[in-house]
Design brief:
It is a single chain. The protein is mainly alpha-helical. Among the domains are: about 130 residues, Tetratricopeptide repeat domain (Serine Threonine Protein Phosphatase 5, Tetratricopeptide repeat), CATH 1.25.40; about 80 residues. The protein contains 17 helices and no strands. InterPro entries: TPR-like_helical_dom_sf (IPR011990). Pfam families: TPR_12.
Length: about 350
């Protein structure tokens, strides 16, 4: 059995905050508690309040503020000799680095966070840090390296009855299955994740699970209307909690669904919207993937073949530069889908 989901990143005086608290409320409460702790010289409390501030900024897409906040939390925790708080701050920094597309930095920070979590005896931050490493590898497309870690973390989360972590692990493994074409297995895992999240009142996890289900319904079942309905349900939670990143990925997925259904003009509009949202939060992976969808939509709407080929060539470099190992494959699939040959892209690049 799973209990109600909780947010271990909300610590100290902020443990009363819910996993579903609006991020603007978390930011306000965290900032107030941080200032109060600083006034009385309570460094350990300041470090842990600063963690909530950093996470709120990150999830709101306020990258520069999040970067300053996690570093300040780490420095304060180090001054207080609070190894556990240092681990949590590094976890936040590593998660932010992954969000920004700085994958080598994400690996380093999350590995250090896991090590400090082990030293401090904080099994939760160690688990979150290992999970962050697994997610980083999955996003990069290195499935062979991280599938076993995902499965290990799922087993540990199930054993402890941790709903939120179980949901995360299920969604990660489901995404790997989806990306390798095992749609039925992926659907079943996303469905289980959605059910556990709903029972545990984890609105964030539920929204991501619904997004995964919508993707499968669109690809496997060719049912765009049901997929869009699932995304609309997820969007309600994203907006209620001010989940900027999750909302942007929801909009990009809506573009994917519409594109697959042949509704190219509407898909174009959604990709433009998602692109702007990702640009606002300096999220390079989401930005590049939205551009890829936009290029394909514009091509379907009659854009010049040479311009399409040129942008696909550029995008291949951008995606590879971010560190997505399957970037070339994604772009080549787009070329094939649009009836372009590799030579067209090469010729266009040479002419620049």
């Amino acid at each position: 059995m799973y209990g109600k989901a909780f947010a271990p990143e909300y610590q100290g005086a902020l443990t009363t905050l819910s996993v579903n608290s609006s991020l603007t409320d978390v930011l306000a409460a965290g900032t107030e508690q941080l200032r109060a702790a600083e006034r009385v010289g309570a460094r350990a409390e300041a470090a842990r309040s600063g963690l909530a501030v950093a996470e709120a900024h990150r999830r709101l897409g306020q990258v520069a503020d999040a970067d300053r906040a996690w570093k300040a939390s780490y420095r304060t925790a180090r001054e207080a000799r609070d190894t556990g708080a240092m681990a949590w701050a590094l976890w936040s920094g590593g998660t932010l680095a992954r969000q920004r597309g700085a994958f080598p930095l994400a690996w380093r920070l999350l590995r250090l966070a896991a090590e400090l979590g082990k030293q401090s005896g904080d099994v939760v931050v160690r688990g979150y840090s290992l999970a962050g490493m697994a997610e980083t590898g999955r996003i990069q497309g290195d499935y062979a390296a991280v599938t076993a870690l995902h499965e290990q973390l799922l087993a540990e989360a199930r054993k402890r009855g941790e709903a939120r972590h179980t949901v995360w692990a299920l969604e990660g493994i489901a995404q790997i299955h989806r990306n390798t074409g095992a749609y039925d297995t992926a659907y079943a895992m996303f469905e289980e994740a959605a059910e556990i999240a709903a029972r545990a009142e984890d609105r964030r996890g539920h929204a991501w699970a619904l997004r995964g289900l919508a993707d499968i319904v669109s690809v496997r079942d060719r049912d765009p209307d049901r997929a869009l309905a699932l995304l609309s349900e997820a969007e309600v939670s994203c907006r209620a909690m001010n989940l900027s990143g999750a909302l942007a990925y929801n909009h990009k997925m809506r573009g994917n669904v519409l594109y697959r259904a042949g509704r190219y003009e509407r898909a174009r509009d959604l990709y433009v919207q998602a692109l702007a949202e990702f640009e606002a939060m300096s999220e390079p992976r989401g930005r590049a993937l939205s551009r890829l969808g936009l290029v394909k939509s514009l091509a379907r709407l009659g854009r010049d073949r040479a311009e399409t080929a040129a942008e696909l060539t550029e995008l291949a470099s951008v995606l590879e530069g971010i560190g997505l190992r399957h970037a070339r494959e994604m772009v080549e699939r787009a070329r094939t889908e649009l009836g372009l040959t590799p030579a067209e892209g090469a010729d266009t690049e040479a002419a620049r």
